[in-house]
Amino acid sequence: MELISFFDYRKKSTVSKAKKGDKEAFLALIDENRLNIYRVARGILKDTVDIEDAIQNTIIKSFQKINSLKQDEYFRTWLIKILINECTQILRKGKRVTYLSENSDTEIYNDSYENIDLTKAINSLSEELRVTTVLFYFEDMSTKDIAKLLKISDGTVRSRLTRARTKLREIMGEVEI
């Protein structure tokens, strides 16, 4: 119990330092959350360039607005919320752009734990189902935290997860018994 409290205190202390303008503390927080940021962005966006843009914009905005973070212990949730907003903005812009040539067959990821079929199945989900699924399964966020983050009810989160699981079973070809 004491060990957990020490780590919580250390993290809070790092966030406090970052809020006071300590760039090293901010970079340490970003480094600590980089895999989470990447997985969420990859779960929402399909294009590598879009993923990189979303992450870069998230880091810039979070650095500029870190003083608006009210509770230090929610840094990760706050950062992911900024990321989701950035991803949503990129998706909206992408719908208006027409590409002359599109290489959708070439998806390049360097994630050694990736299941390509599952990734494609998740990417085929609607945005609301995809975001909820990524946050719950890849970021280990509780339904309550997802509800707060997305500003929806806990029941809506559970409903989206149920619908996402059903669609993923259909896509992956699994038969329910």
UniProtKB/TrEMBL annotation:
A Pfam family that this protein carries is: Sigma70_r2
Q: Could you confirm whether the keyword Thylakoid appears in this record? A: no
This protein's superkingdom?
Bacteria
Taking every annotated instance into account, which residue ranges of this chain make up the domain RNA polymerase sigma factor 70 region 4 type? 118-168
Could you tell me the keywords of this UniProt record?
Sigma factor, Transcription, Transcription regulation
What is a biological process (GO) this protein takes part in? DNA-templated transcription initiation
Q: Name one GO molecular function term.
A: sigma factor activity
UniProt entry tagged with the keyword Lipoprotein: no
**Which CDD domains does the entry link to?**
Sigma70_r4
User: Residue ranges of the RNA polymerase sigma-70 region domain?
Assistant: 29-96
Q: Which residues form a coiled coil?
A: none
Signal peptide per UniProt: none
Which family does the UniProt entry place this protein in? Belongs to the sigma-70 factor family. ECF subfamily.
Protein name (record): RNA polymerase sigma-70 factor (ECF subfamily)
Q: Which organism is it from?
A: Clostridium beijerinckii (Clostridium MP)
